[in-house]
Amino acid sequence: MLYLFRMLLMGLHFVLAGVLGVLLGLCRPFNPDNSRLCARLYAWPAMCILRLRVKTDVDSLTHKKQSCVVIANHQSNYDLFVLGNVVPHRTVCIGKKSLKWVPLFGQLFWLAGNVLIDRGNAHKARQSMLTTTHTLKHKDTSIWVFPEGTRNLGKELLPFKKGAFQMAIAAGVPIVQVCVSNYINHMRLNRWNSGQILIRSLPPIPTAGLTLDDMPQLMAQCREQMRECIEAMDRQLQAA
């Protein structure tokens, strides 16, 4: 019963947040800080409805000194609400083109200045990547990417795709890794307190001076560091 009530409230919240987000986007279309404000709009009420306790340690993300590429593990659709708590100032996200057809959220996502990529069209995807590289270098705006490309459903990290690392190397900006503990398999939404989630960002990894030849090693390094961090947070929660 509690689960059904929460899902009803979440549905209403999703619609209301979408309406308010679209209005914000219409008032200041494509402002790169719209994403942060809309993320908070989704995240704060959702955490109250779901009764999920989120503890964050993201100083390297919130106090970043320049534009960067932010990479995070992608577990489920709940990431919108969980990670919305830590989206930093002037940060936009890369998403698949099909998101634009989601009522309200798709229009909000576009008006917030986020980047929609047509993964089925290599030429258009490449042009979008070039645009985001220019944004990183010249517009004091960071890019948030889920390098797995799809949800891992709380299982082992999926292989990383190249896009985020190509952008970081081409722009010469650091990579900041954001790790979220495995929550999707441990949430108990039929209980009053649904669970606890840890979010941690790792020290920036510089890419200045790297070339595409260095990309495989960079990808492997990032994936291994994130895997170790996620496992450490999971052990911390189990011991609590």
List the SSEs and their pairings.
Layout lengths: L1 H26 L6 H17 L1 E6 L1 H4 L6 E4 L6 H4 L8 E6 L8 H7 L3 E3 L4 H17 L3 E4 L17 H9 L3 E6 L14 E7 L13 H25 L1
Parallel strand pairs: 1-7, 2-5, 2-6, 3-4, 3-5
Antiparallel strand pairs: 6-7
Helix pairs in contact: 1-2, 1-5, 6-7
Organism: Pseudomonas kielensis
EC number: 2.3.1.51
Pfam family, one: Acyltransferase
Explain how this protein is built.
There is one protein chain. The protein has a single domain (2-239), classed as Glycerol-3-phosphate (1)-acyltransferase (3-Layer(aba) Sandwich). Helices cover 45% and strands 15% of the residues. It has helices at 2-27, 34-50, 59-62, 79-82, 105-111, 122-138, 163-171, 215-239, and strands at residues 52-57, 69-72, 91-96, 115-117, 142-145, 175-180, 195-201. The chain has a seven-stranded mixed β-sheet with strand order 1-7-6-2-5-3-4, with helices on both faces. α1 packs antiparallel against α2 (34-50), α1 (2-27) runs parallel beside α5 (105-111) and α6 (122-138) runs parallel beside α7. The longest helix has 26 residues, at 2-27. The protein is globular, with a radius of gyration of 18 Å. The mean pLDDT is 90. It comes from Pseudomonas kielensis.
